[in-house]
Design a protein that fits this description.
It is built from eight helices and ten strands. The chain has 269 residues and is α/β, with parallel strands linked by helices. The strands form two sheets. Strands 3-2-1-4-5 form a five-stranded mixed beta sheet, with helices on both faces. A five-stranded mixed beta sheet has the order 8-7-6-9-10, with helices on both faces. Helix 4 packs across helix 8. The two termini are 26 Å apart.
Length: 269
């Protein structure tokens, strides 16, 4: 297994541009010194995003380098325009070429880079606790497995909480949007309670079931780490033991940036 490279302590602005939000943090080493999260609409304005990043960096008292993972290519220019005036150089978008861990995915170029960032973070943070499973509760619910020997094995994608709810509401005329709060019982006695039971407890049950299947496929118990905007809402209803790390993807961005910097330094030496 490839030995993870410990990150430097240099501050780095890390951005995760997802389908519904942009999450940003300043990481000193692997630890966040401050963070923000913007909605999709807010992030589409370079002025709004730039102002939020300016405030984040002012609170952190740094002028860092910057790296990003993005599953929204149409937003990349906005990310550059908003961040680069605040950075020491160009914003780097991580790619699969930045990741040195073994890939067993059949189409690496088609892999969402947020998934690979999560896998890189699992590989580096849990070297003695593999196999490990990253579970990302976002627009989609993504499961990504790092095997016994540190290779990225692949994973699974299921609908995310909000995505599934909006899809059902759009297809069922008698249902309307509700704020999903964790139910006290799986037995809903109103439409809102029934939706909360089906979606929150249902996604928790799906998660437990998928962990069981991944564990069987790996031939071992798994160390599970949850991340994403809905992680805290779902994990408390899972029977699977897992920790929640809201910065898992951004830690992966940091690691891929570090790998690239060290490779570049080695090649130019």
């Amino acid at each position: 297994m490839l030995t993870p490279i410990p990150p430097t302590d240099l501050p780095l602005l890390c951005l995760d541009a997802g389908n519904t939000s942009v999450h940003a943090a300043v990481l000193c080493g692997m630890e966040p010194a401050g963070s923000i999260r913007l909605t999709r609409v807010e992030a589409e304005s370079s002025e709004v995003l730039g102002g939020a990043l300016r405030g984040l960096l002012a609170r952190s008292h740094v002028r860092p380098s910057g790296a990003a993972v993005s599953v929204r290519p149409e937003l990349n220019n906005c990310l550059r325009q908003a961040s680069e005036p605040l950075l020491t150089g160009p914003l780097h978008f991580v790619t699969c070429d930045d990741c040195p861990i073994e890939m067993r995915y059949k189409q690496p170029q088609a892999l969402g880079m947020d998934r690979l960032c999560n896998a890189a973070a699992i590989h580096a943070l849990l070297p003695d606790k593999l196999p490990g499973l990253a579970i990302d509760f976002g627009t989609a619910t993504k499961f990504d497995l790092v095997g016994h020997h540190g290779a990225y094995e692949g994973g699974a994608i299921a609908p995310g909480l909000e995505t599934a709810l909006q899809g059902l509401i759009g297809a069922a005329q008698l249902l309307s949007a509700v704020d999903l709060e964790a139910p006290d019982s799986p037995i809903g006695r109103t439409t809102a309670e029934s939706l909360a039971s089906g979606f929150i407890l249902g996604l928790a049950a799906l998660t437990d079931g998928m962990v069981t299947r991944f564990s069987a496929a790996a031939g071992s118990d798994l160390t599970c780490v949850a991340t994403g905007g809905y992680a805290a809402k779902i994990v408390t209803h899972c029977t699977t033991q897992m920790r929640v790390d809201p910065f898992l993807t951004l830690r992966g961005v940091r690691l891929l940036w570090e790998y690239r910097q060290r490779r570049s330094a080695t090649s130019s030496a």
